[in-house]
Design brief:
Helix content is about 15%, strand content about 40%. By secondary structure, it is an alpha+beta fold. A six-stranded antiparallel sheet has the order 3-4-6-7-8-5, with helices on one face. The model has no long low-confidence stretch (mean pLDDT about 90).
């Protein structure tokens, strides 16, 4: 993780070249505050669909990133793949809005992690998500 030192995201962290698709779709950021893990994303014009709102796939990609950050919130680095991902679209988001995701790890064991979360824009619920991560051995 790379710590951001300047600008809007100063004090936050970014994967920094680890996941090329997330770099293209994002960038996405993560921090820890008094409430736990928080993930951030400010979508741009390239994240919009034909209706001018943030594309559902863009929201789902941010949710997937957030799933891994939340899933590793108990201090372990999570190296794995998404096994299941459930998303409920609750409200549209616009390019330029600050999107924040928070959630909780709901369970897991040696090989699986379960987590869920909620993405908000300007305090309003945009997308609820839950999923399962399969830990990869030796990764």
């Amino acid at each position: 993780m790379t710590r951001i030192e300047t600008g809007e995201w100063a004090g936050w962290y970014q994967w920094g070249g680890v996941d090329p698709f997330e770099n293209l779709a994002g960038p996405f950021y993560v921090a820890r505050d008094d409430q736990g893990i928080v993930c951030g994303f400010r979508p741009g014009a390239d994240n919009r669909n034909g209706h001018g709102i943030v594309h559902g796939g863009s929201l789902m990609t941010f949710a997937d990133f957030s799933l891994f950050m939340i899933g590793g919130s108990e201090g372990e680095q999570v190296h794995g793949v998404t096994v299941t991902m459930n998303c409920e679209f609750l409200r549209a988001a616009n390019a330029g809005q600050l999107l924040l995701a928070r959630g909780e790890r709901t369970g897991g064991g040696r090989s699986l992690i379960f987590a869920r979360g909620l993405i908000r824009a300007d305090g309003r619920e945009v997308l609820a998500f839950s999923g399962t991560i399969k830990k990869l051995k030796g990764a």
